[in-house]
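Why should sequence recovery work at all? Because a backbone constrains its sequence more than one might expect. Tight turns favour small or flexible residues, buried strands favour hydrophobic ones, and helices have their own preferences. The token representation captures these environments compactly. In the example below, the structure is given first.
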């Protein structure tokens, strides 16, 4: 920390230094961020307020949507502010906090997706034991374990970086603070830290991906001999989750299982798992899920109905007051 104190702040260079591209990016990513927050918040409100969505699958989906809001909020607002002409500087401790938050929520998403895959495996391969294996207590412990695992991972990533000496330059060739671009700025031999980062991030990503792939292989094998209707039901149940896993783990694995060699390439790929995937998650899960769409329609109908009732009550009160005033006259 004493060595790092020689650099008080970093400059985030962002996605591009071209002014024309920055204007386009600012509008595009602002729209992406607003859709991300609105879509995931809608899922959280719908699951919490709908009694019909009380199964483990929707409990995990609600948790995932909350994580997506937090995950995109660690990087998108600062990036958009920089694109709109705001300050591109970030304090040293602010940079470390962003690094911690990004890995914390990103790792929590990885563990939650793994928990959701296990839920689908039990639902399809062991349906008679589903209620016992996926009790409310078990689901709560799985989500808690996701948060704790993410905390340990992000703490290690933070410790690997914050202890490095930074004595200049301070320009980060990225749109947020991450380990790989910060290693380029350290005034020391960072090969050991880079290897530890690859082992830490790569081990989690590859292990989770292997578990996910294995679970779906087992599900497909268990469907042998099933009718076409059974196949369709299973694939419709798992299709949304498989799509999200591919969109998230593909770019994430590309970044964190190898030493960084091209930061321009890395930050372009990072857009997919840090900005685009959190935006697409609510669209993927709602468009393919009739229960969620039905619950949203009911929620909207209740809201519209309550507003109409308030308008009618206000109208009756107004008419009553007018009659009283007329009689008094």
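From this structural description, the recovered sequence reads:
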């Amino acid at each position: 920390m004493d060595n790092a104190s020689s650099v008080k702040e970093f400059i985030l260079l962002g996605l591009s230094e071209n002014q024309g591209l920055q204007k386009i990016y600012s509008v595009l990513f602002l729209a992406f961020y607003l859709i991300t927050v609105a879509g995931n918040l809608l899922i959280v409100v719908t699951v919490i307020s709908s009694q019909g969505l009380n199964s483990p699958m929707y409990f995990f989906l609600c948790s995932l949507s909350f994580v997506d809001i937090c995950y995109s909020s660690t990087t998108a607002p600062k990036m958009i502010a920089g694109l709109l002409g705001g300050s591109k500087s970030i304090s040293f401790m602010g940079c470390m906090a962003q690094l911690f938050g990004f890995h914390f929520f990103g790792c929590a998403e990885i563990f939650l997706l793994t928990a959701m895959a296990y839920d689908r495996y039990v639902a399809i391969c062991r349906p008679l034991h589903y209620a016992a294996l996926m009790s409310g207590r078990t689901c709560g412990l799985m989500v808690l374990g996701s948060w704790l695992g993410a905390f340990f991972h992000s703490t290690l990533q933070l410790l690997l970086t914050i202890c490095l000496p930074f004595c200049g330059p301070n320009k980060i060739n990225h749109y947020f603070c991450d380990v790989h671009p910060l290693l380029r700025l350290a005034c020391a031999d960072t090969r050991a830290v880079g290897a530890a980062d690859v082992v830490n991030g790569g081990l989690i990503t590859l292990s989770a991906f292997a578990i996910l792939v294995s679970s779906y292989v087992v599900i497909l094998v268990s469907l042998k001999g099933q009718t076409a209707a059974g196949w369709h039901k299973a694939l419709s149940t798992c299709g949304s989750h498989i799509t999200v896993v591919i969109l998230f783990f593909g770019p994430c694995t590309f970044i964190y299982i190898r030493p960084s060699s091209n930061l321009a390439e890395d930050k372009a790929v990072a857009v997919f798992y840090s900005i685009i995937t959190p935006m697409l998650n609510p669209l993927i899960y709602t468009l393919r899920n009739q229960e969620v769409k039905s619950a949203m329609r009911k929620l909207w109908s209740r809201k519209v109905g309550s507003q109409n009732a308030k308008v009618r009550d206000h109208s009756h009160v107004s008419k009553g007051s007018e009659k009283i005033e007329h009689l008094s006259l």
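A few observations help interpret the result. The mean pLDDT is 83.
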